[in-house]
Write a structure and sequence with these properties.
This protein has 43 residues and is mainly α. The chain is built from 3 helices and no strands. The radius of gyration is 12 Å and the shape is elongated. The mean pLDDT is 69.
Length: 43
């Protein structure tokens, strides 16, 4: 895995955490889409 991908993945995780924290009602409404996380193995 290259460093650029790791940085992007960390940013993605931070965004997801912020999304869950700031908009739990949206998380409940979009539950199926919030479970999709890109796999590091695809790179």
């Amino acid at each position: 895995m290259n460093k650029e991908y790791l940085i992007d993945y960390k940013k993605f995780l931070i965004i997801v955490e912020f999304y869950h924290f700031s908009a739990p009602q949206l998380k409940d409404a979009n539950a199926p889409t919030t479970t999709i996380i890109p796999s590091p193995s695809k790179v």
